[in-house]
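User: Okay, second chain of the day. Same drill as before: sequence in, structure tokens out.
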Amino acid sequence: MAEHNLTPKQKQILKTITESVKAGKAKEPLIAVVAGGEGIIMGITEKFDRNLLGDLEILCEADLLGVRYNNGNKTYTVKQSGYDAVENSFVIPESQLPAQINIGAIIRDMNGGNIQAVGLSNSSELNQLVNDTDLLRKKLDELTEQLVDVVKSELSSKELMMYIQNLEELKKEIESEKPSSSVLQRLFASISFLGDVESTISLVTRVLPYVYPFLLIASQKLAGGG
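Assistant: Same drill. Structure tokens below.
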């Protein structure tokens, strides 16, 4: 079962916003202000912390809020997907999951092409990893650090924060006893920038060798280990 990749605080912010808009307390477009170490949204009595604007940005990137500009300042609207997310307790319906990424197909294509995996030496190491929890966690941390080093110069600080959140969710899913194929597909699509119309071919090409070992490990876990 896939869920929106949000922190509990971000979920609560969206829930508060949707409830306030539905009740007529807050009017769209919403205006958010951070001052004196706390954040407020006009029309909403609840107070938020100083990271409010960053949390709203992540909700926009998750396609749950819309953003508009008024005299250079951002204002926000709630998308139908935002209402749906709150109503569904932030569980993503299977019909909304991206279906364009097939883990097995990507691995086969890479294996038959010229892309070499970074961070894995051979299949015996792969088998050992999926059967040793400590080794697996250490390897995933190492691979994550390498991948972040590749993308950090290409992303804004907010984009990088979202990217790292996706990587942490991916590691958690791979380490779980029974990883979800649908969750893995969604996360691999995100960290590979596949389907992102703003990403460049050069960026996608650069990250694939670093995503490849994640794919191999996930595929092995889905197959039941070595």
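The chain has nine helices and five strands.

User: Thanks, on to the next one.
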